[in-house]
Design goal:
The protein is mainly beta. It has one helix at about 1-20, and strands at about 25-30, 35-40, 55-60, 65-70, 75-80, 85-90, 90-95, 100-105, 110-115, 130-140, 140-150. It has a five-stranded antiparallel sheet, with no helix packed on it.
């Protein structure tokens, strides 16, 4: 009986050590991966963004369109068009069966725009959280995409 208890204690210690070394014990969570704090070694993966896209809404919701916020490196909008018509959003065209990563920008007049990017790195860092909307069309169907771009969530 004491032998089993000893094995159980050793197994529990090994599991705790693995969790500690893998950084799985989160002490401060955040939607921005660069702001997550954990005990142990940092989690690998290359996600260091300190801003994020939150509260993403698409009206009307269409099954053939997928919108997601990729917050890995600052928050870019990922769009997948599985519809039979072209999506036009903020001056960007996404053809049927295509996908795009879109970053936010501000033009000289202070208006928010979308910029197509080839990765998941966002260059746009607002001073304060901003609620932003873009009007678009899918064929003749009007759509509105609304999201919040956060300011830096940590230093």
């Amino acid at each position: 009986m004491p032998h089993r208890r000893f094995r159980a204690c050793i197994a529990a210690a090994i599991v705790a050590l693995i969790l500690l070394l893998s950084g799985c014990i989160v002490t401060q969570d955040s939607p921005a991966p660069g702001c997550v704090k954990s005990i142990g070694l940092p989690v690998a993966g290359g996600c260091f963004g300190k801003t994020a896209l939150l509260d993403l809404q698409v009206e009307p919701a269409l099954e053939c369109l997928a919108f997601t916020g990729n917050n890995c490196n600052g928050g870019v909008l990922e769009v997948r068009n599985a519809c039979s018509e072209t999506l036009r959003l903020g001056g960007i065209e996404i053809l049927p069966s295509k996908a795009a990563s879109l970053d936010l920008a501000v033009d000289a007049g202070g208006t928010h725009t979308l910029v197509q990017v080839s990765g998941n790195f966002s260059d746009y860092v607002p001073d304060k959280d901003e609620r932003i909307s873009f009007d678009g069309t899918l064929g003749a169907q009007a759509i509105v995409v609304t999201l919040t771009k956060t300011a830096q969530l940590c230093e």
